[in-house]
Amino acid sequence: MQIRRYKHFASVVGLVLGLLCAVEAAKVNKHKPWIETTYHGIVTENDDKVLLDPPLIALDKDAPLRYAGEICGFRIHGQNVPFEAVVLDKSTGEGVIRAKDKLDCELQKEHTFTIQAYDCGEGPDGANMKKSHKATVHIQVNDINEYSPVFKEKSYKATVIEGKKYDSILKVEAVDADCSFQFSQICSYEIVTPDVPFTVDKDGFIKNTEKLNYSKERMYKLTVTAYDCGKNRASEDVLVKINIKPTCKPGWQGIKGPTLSVTLKRHQELFVCGTLKGKSFYSIPLERD
């Protein structure tokens, strides 16, 4: 009697196990796709091709079964992500990430989002589709040298006294709107006007290369340009005016005062110069009567 019961129990267990095995065997899509956990990409602004490391490849242990072992797509998660992921080969799981819209490094230098791969399920309708884990993608937008330097001022002017060499007379300054350090930095300035006794250094400081003479030149007009480190020239050169003042020396008598003197220079022009409360001043040229 006990033997019969045991045989009956064994047959029931065998039947249950058989049914479980049959159900499991009927499941075609057993495995989830697999992708890396982190990706790093580089894309140049105004381009859509993302260079990804490592490459975007999804694997599925159900391969080479059709549908279940194939990768049907990638899904990107995040708000306002300007990228899309596309499957290039379903059987190998190879894909690419590309920009959907024009990228602008000046607006946003980096983008971070997550991505998933999903297989083709158990048939053409995608039934029982399985998804991979979510991987993090970091993409850096590389700059192109699209902007030229722009001077902060429309023009510059300064006044110097004749007969002196200055370490610095004035500074011109330009800026660049590019997002990268290389293309946004001003690497050099240049005086475009030929044969003038002035020079400008890489920081924009202008100085004279020789002592200036009022009787030779009363004002110099210089055209200065700037270059960024990508060798883009300024969109517009800038005008620099440097006025030359005569040396203040006691001269022609006639105007009295403890700190006031009058100097008569060549061409019969009259200049009033002196000091007032410790500060030097000059008049404009006065015509003699």
TrEMBL record:
Membrane topology annotation: Single-pass type I membrane protein
UniProt keywords, alphabetically: Calcium, Cell adhesion, Cell membrane, Endoplasmic reticulum, Glycoprotein, Golgi apparatus, Membrane, Postsynaptic cell membrane, Repeat, Signal, Synapse, Transmembrane, Transmembrane helix
Any one GO molecular-function label of the UniProt entry: calcium ion binding
Gene Ontology annotations for the cellular component aspect, listed alphabetically: cell surface; endoplasmic reticulum membrane; Golgi membrane; postsynaptic membrane
Localisation: Endoplasmic reticulum membrane; Golgi apparatus membrane; Postsynaptic cell membrane
UniProt xrefs under CDD domains: Cadherin_repeat (cd11304)
Start and end residues of each Cadherin domain: 35-151, 152-260
Domain of life: Eukaryota
Subcellular location, principal: endoplasmic reticulum
GO BP terms, alphabetized: homophilic cell adhesion via plasma membrane adhesion molecules; positive regulation of synapse assembly; positive regulation of synaptic transmission
Range of residues in the leader sequence: 1-25
Record-stated family: Belongs to the calsyntenin family.
Protein name: Calsyntenin 1
Source organism: Hucho hucho
Phylogenetic placement of the source organism: Eukaryota, Metazoa, Chordata, Craniata, Vertebrata
